[in-house]
Task: inverse folding
């Protein structure tokens, strides 16, 4: 394993807060994306994968903190009645969101921004008050600049089989969001309903635990005369 920064792990790092190790970089992986979870398994750390502790997520909207609808995928609602009960949208915004169930399929030729597709289905309030807050926390970007196919590939694929995006999200949630093949001999997997997974004790442990299994450190320094290796 080669590391270019002074500390093992690069952007995955831990700091102590009130006597507890806390991730100060990425703290979790999307369970449905195999790039991260497969790498963890290949590193021999599958047994350390856990689902993050659950708590009630809320969004400040229309003057108060409001609970997120349970049936949603990265802010894309699967149950519009539940969305209405959440109070996140104005009356006009909820009326517009319900049009998703009646509108014909939204054509798309190639890739499209998340905001463009979700907005065409549900209206701008769903984008502003649900999708942007959730996607921004994961991808550090705005939904009008994020690719629908790249950031929500499962939903983008499922949406081709439904005219309603809410129905597509519901079908995907019914199928679970866990990684295909999880629960095999490679090790336990997060709960099928978990959107995120991480390592017990923090994702920042990934490099240090792997280092402990492959041996000690070697420091390589390059200068004009060549490369020096210290063990």
Result:
């Amino acid at each position: 394993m080669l590391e270019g920064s002074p500390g093992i792990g690069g952007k995955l790092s831990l700091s102590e807060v009130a006597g507890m190790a806390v991730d100060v970089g990425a703290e979790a992986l999307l369970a449905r994306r195999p790039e991260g979870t497969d790498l963890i398994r290949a590193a021999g750390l599958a047994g350390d994968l856990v689902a993050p502790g659950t708590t009630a997520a809320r969004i400040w909207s229309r003057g108060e903190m409001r609970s997120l609808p349970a049936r949603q995928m990265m802010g894309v609602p699967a149950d519009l009645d539940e969305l209405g009960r959440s109070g996140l949208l104005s009356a006009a915004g909820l009326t517009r969101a319900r049009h998703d169930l009646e509108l014909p399929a939204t054509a798309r030729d190639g890739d499209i921004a998340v905001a463009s597709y979700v907005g065409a289905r549900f209206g701008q309030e769903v984008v502003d008050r649900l999708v942007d807050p959730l996607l921004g926390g994961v991808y550090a970007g705005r939904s009008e600049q994020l690719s629908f196919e790249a950031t929500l590939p499962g939903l983008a694929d499922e949406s081709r089989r439904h005219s309603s995006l809410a129905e597509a999200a519901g079908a995907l949630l019914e199928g679970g969001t866990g990684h295909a093949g999880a629960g095999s001999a490679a090790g336990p997997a997060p709960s099928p309903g978990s959107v995120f997974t991480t390592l017990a004790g923090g994702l920042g442990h990934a490099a240090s635990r792997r280092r402990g299994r492959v041996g000690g450190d070697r420091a390589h320094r390059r200068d004009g005369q060549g490369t020096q290796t210290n063990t």
Q: What stands out?
A: Residues 177-191 have pLDDT under 50 and may be disordered. Residues 60 and 66 are 6 Å apart (CA to CA).
